[in-house]
């Protein structure tokens, strides 16, 4: 709404009335009888709304009534306190309106006491009115409101009125003042004031980054290219350094050039969001940029992930944020702080030399474990207060050390802070007691709590070895021998490596153990890997098996770590690296490794020596908690020819091994174990194990399997082929026994409650079925005597013989 110049209210004294008319005309019409053309101002009479018109009218009347030489910003500020609409605005900003009005009037009357002559419009008042007009234009309106007048006064920090208003806001509610009376409303809409958060105590303390903060202050003090960019891995503390700078500014621990500056974090994603029409993002960004330019001595802009300015908001026929920033950065109109990773900076910013040369990179390295402990000590109080727990010193050390040891795909101190945070949450939830007790009871977080979190996240048992674990590890050989027969040397070698790792005596930068199993087929090489996975984890799924016969071609090497850029399959996970990333504590079995292409061995060198491997995405995969087992049939024929002499056969096989593999590959393997051929007695034990497995399957159906010595000898005799190991025996049992049992079960010849006896009749395997008790309803079966006693029924005996 436009308001025309109202009829003037005459004063009681002629001179006063004339002075009012002259000043009123100068303010509202932009003209004065004594003013030159260059000194004429805006014709505000056609630009002010009703409330703004009332404010200016009261300022003019106060100037005349107080006998002031000129209408200054102070008169406008006093008038603002007298109009209800603007007074409410100040009150909502935390300003004590009555005190401000009294202070302004006292100061003006003391300064202008007894002034003579016709009053004029001061330069400060002109700046305030012009600032109000610019504020209105910036918001896209063509009428100046009362709020714009307040903002125009606040924007002029050099005037008495601007300083008085700023002081009044500072003594009141700063948060409300910022939202209502901010001189940078568009920047505040899309930004977060870190200095305000620091004043409110909402930022975490920054520890151990004094050198980086000092370096940033030096760059910000430069005359040109004073735009520091923090570069480093994710989680090393780049954003925290900027927060530390904001805390220093609030504490006054910065040079005069940075004193009282605001550090505002700009949200580019928020600026792009909702910009539906062409040019809408550019207008938003230009508005923010204009406010930053206007207050470049007061504002530091921080853009996290600064590489995102390249391409941000770009569309067909429009410019991105980086292009719009270049001129302002080059002329020093904007001081920008950025943070990004080295990879993203190289990929996006360095490709634009015109943009890149305006930044001053500052490298932020990953802190050491000792430095991380210091960081955690600085954060301890915050987390204790949040979780209402006590954090032991040992928990801080454990968080730093265990995160560095077992979480390889993230960086300190971020991963250590996450571990500590989750450990505090877990302890509070599990040991915090009742809700009513939570206010007084504060449980203590210790190192074992942090270890439990690591174990739950990675599957790696990193806590102190319990008594149960000790017994299981000491009896590991016995568990493995129950499944692997006749290979005591291999079993002992693997068990010793596992015990070293669990006792903390193994090399922390290598896998738990790396073994090459040599020997004829079917002697237990693969079975030992399966047995180890089951013994360690109780889960055969922890065995990651790769058949190296699938990697015979040169190009198949990429299947292990992923295809390189530009090749088909790029972006897909590598078969080896991805599975180890998901299960970092496992047994990796590379079966028949001699069949792989030689380039595969080059890839494995880094795994065996350094316990790590980089995939095609550049991610580092940790193999330090893996048992690597490779099997090979190299020299198998020589083992069989050497007879029973174990020493001679081992020398023969190792000689052939050196002829096949390169020395640097063999030298990185912890132990090369030669598996012996299986004899008749060992096959008999294996046959017993296989028959126990078949018996367990029948028992689940309520059928009992009994194999006599004659039947066992008959199966072993027909399955004995030393050159093929135990596999022929497995086939004989499947063909001669399992197939017949399956037919009997399907035909109904065998049912729940029956016993199948295996014996030899006339040189052939014979199966006889005896029904020794009636099945109990519901599928439960008792022994015959127990059945008769419990149920009171008589055993029923039924005989069937199958030759």
Automatic annotation (TrEMBL):
GO cellular component: cytoplasm
One Gene Ontology term from the biological process aspect of the record: proteolysis
Pfam families per record: AAA (PF00004), AAA_2 (PF07724), AAA_lid_9 (PF17871), Clp_N (PF02861), ClpB_D2-small (PF10431)
Source organism superkingdom: Bacteria
Domain AAA+ ATPase: 224-369, 511-679
Every Clp ATPase C-terminal domain range: 678-767
SUPFAM superfamilies named in the record: Double Clp-N motif, P-loop containing nucleoside triphosphate hydrolases
UniProt entry keywords in alphabetical sequence: ATP-binding, Chaperone, Hydrolase, Nucleotide-binding, Protease, Repeat
Region Disordered, residue ranges: 783-803
SMART domains per record: AAA, ClpB_D2-small
Gene Ontology molecular function: any one: ATP hydrolysis activity
Alphabetized PANTHER family for the sequence: ATP-DEPENDENT CLP PROTEASE, HEAT SHOCK PROTEIN 104
Protein name: ATP-dependent Clp protease ATP-binding subunit ClpC
């Amino acid at each position: 709404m436009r308001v025309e110049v109202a009829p003037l209210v005459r004063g009681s004294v002629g001179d006063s009335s004339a002075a009012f008319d002259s000043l009123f005309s100068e303010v509202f019409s932009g003209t004065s009888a004594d003013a030159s053309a260059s000194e004429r101002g805006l014709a505000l009479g056609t630009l002010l709304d009703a409330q703004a018109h009332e404010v200016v009218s009261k300022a003019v009347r106060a100037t005349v009534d107080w006998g002031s030489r000129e209408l200054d910003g102070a008169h406008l500020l006093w008038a603002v306190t007298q109009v209800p609409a603007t007074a409410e605005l100040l009150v909502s900003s935390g300003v004590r309106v009555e005190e401000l009005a009294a202070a302004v009037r006292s100061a003006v009357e003391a300064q202008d006491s007894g002034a003579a002559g016709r009053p004029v419009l001061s330069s400060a008042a002109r700046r305030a009115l012009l600032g109000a007009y610019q504020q209105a234009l910036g918001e896209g309106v063509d009428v100046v409101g009362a709020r714009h007048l307040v903002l125009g006064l606040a924007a002029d920090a050099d005037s008495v009125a601007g300083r008085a208003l700023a002081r009044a806001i500072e003594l009141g509610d700063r948060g409300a003042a910022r939202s209502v009376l901010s001189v940078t409303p568009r920047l505040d809409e899309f930004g977060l004031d870190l200095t305000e958060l620091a004043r409110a105590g909402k930022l975490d303390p920054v520890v151990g980054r004094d050198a980086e903060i000092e370096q940033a202050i030096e760059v910000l003090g430069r005359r040109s290219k004073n735009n520091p960019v923090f570069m480093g891995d994710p989680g090393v503390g780049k954003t925290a350094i900027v927060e530390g700078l904001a805390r220093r500014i609030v504490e006054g621990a910065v040079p005069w050039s940075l004193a009282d500056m605001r550090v505002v974090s700009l949200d580019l994603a928020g600026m792009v969001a909702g910009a539906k029409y062409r040019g809408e993002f550019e207008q938003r960004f230009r508005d923010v940029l204009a406010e930053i330019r206007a207050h470049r001595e007061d504002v530091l802009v921080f853009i996290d992930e600064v590489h995102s300015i390249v391409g941000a908001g770009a569309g067909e026929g429009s410019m991105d944020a980086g292009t719009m920033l270049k001129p302002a950065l080059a002329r020093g109109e904007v001081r920008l702080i950025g943070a990004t990773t080295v990879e993203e900076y190289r990929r996006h910013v360095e490709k634009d030399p015109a943009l890149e040369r305006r930044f001053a990179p500052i490298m932020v390295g990953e802190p050491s474990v000792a430095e991380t402990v210091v960081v955690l000590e600085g954060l301890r109080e915050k987390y204790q207060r949040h979780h209402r727990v006590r954090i032991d010193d040992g928990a801080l050390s454990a968080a730093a050390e265990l995160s560095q040891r077992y979480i390889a795909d993230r960086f300190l101190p971020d991963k250590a802070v996450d571990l500590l945070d989750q450990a505090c949450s877990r302890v509070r939830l599990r040991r915090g007691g009742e809700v009513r007790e939570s206010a007084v009871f504060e449980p203590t977080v210790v190192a074992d709590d942090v270890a439990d979190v690591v174990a739950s996240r990675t599957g790696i048992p990193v806590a102190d070895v319990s008594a149960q674990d000790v017994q299981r590890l000491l009896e590991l050989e016995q568990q493995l021998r129950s499944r692997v027969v006749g290979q005591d040397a291999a079993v002992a070698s693997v068990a010793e490596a596992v015990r070293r790792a669990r006792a903390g005596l193994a090399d922390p930068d290598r896998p738990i153990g790396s073994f090459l199993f040599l020997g004829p087929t079917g002697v237990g090489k693969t079975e030992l890997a399966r047995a180890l996975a089951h013994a360690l984890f109780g889960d055969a799924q922890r065995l990651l098996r790769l058949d190296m016969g699938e990697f015979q071609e040169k190009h198949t090497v990429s299947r292990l770590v992923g295809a390189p850029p530009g090749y088909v399959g790029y972006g897909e996970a590598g078969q080896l690296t991805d599975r180890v990333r998901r299960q970092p504590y496992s047994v990796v079995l590379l079966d028949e490794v001699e069949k792989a292409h030689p380039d595969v061995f080059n890839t494995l060198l880094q795994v065996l020596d350094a316990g790590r491997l980089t995939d095609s995405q550049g991610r580092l995969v940790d193999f330090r908690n893996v048992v690597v087992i490779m099997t090979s049939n190299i020299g198998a024929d020589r083992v069989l020819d050497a007879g029973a002499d174990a020493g001679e056969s081992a020398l023969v096989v190792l000689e052939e091994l050196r002829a096949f593999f390169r020395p640097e590959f063999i030298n990185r393997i912890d132990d090369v174990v030669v598996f012996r051929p299986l004899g008749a007695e060992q096959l008999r034990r294996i046959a017993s194990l296989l028959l126990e497995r078949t018996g367990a399957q029948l028992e689940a159906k309520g059928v009992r399997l009994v194999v006599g010595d004659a039947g066992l000898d008959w199966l072993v005799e027909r399955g004995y082929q030393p050159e093929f190991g135990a596999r022929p025996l497995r086939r004989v049992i499947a063909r001669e026994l399992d197939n017949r049992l399956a037919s009997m079960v399907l035909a109904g010849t065998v049912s729940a409650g029956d016993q199948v006896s295996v014996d030899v009749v006339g040189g052939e395997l014979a199966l006889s079925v005896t029904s020794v008790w009636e099945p109990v309803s519901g599928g439960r079966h008792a022994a015959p005597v127990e059945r008769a006693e419990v149920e009171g029924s008589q055993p029923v005996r039924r005989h069937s013989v199958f030759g």
